[in-house]
């Protein structure tokens, strides 16, 4: 049996339509992650929180919980 020397020398297979279906979350999750990254990055200018020690206390509590 001869071996084809060129990829197009083999007999043509009748063309069939191939349908690829993705689950909804395969598009939604990356879009959500990108949106969250944009929100976290902000406007690109870092500003100190004026008189709101709540975030600092929360981070300190999380640190103490993880370490101790």
List the helices and strands and how they pair.
Layout: H1 25-41, H2 54-67
Q: Quick summary of this structure?
A:
With 68 residues, the protein is mainly α.
Structure in words:
The chain is mainly α and 68 residues long. Helices cover 46% and strands 0% of the residues. It has helices at 25-41, 54-67.
Give the integer mean of the pLDDT values: 75
Proportion of beta-strand residues: under 5%
Strand segment tally? 0
Distance between the termini: 74 Å
Shape: elongated
Count of helical regions:
2
Q: What pattern of helices and strands is seen along the backbone?
A: HH
Q: What labels would you give this structure?
A:
2 helices; 0% strand; 68 residues; mainly alpha; single chain; 46% helix
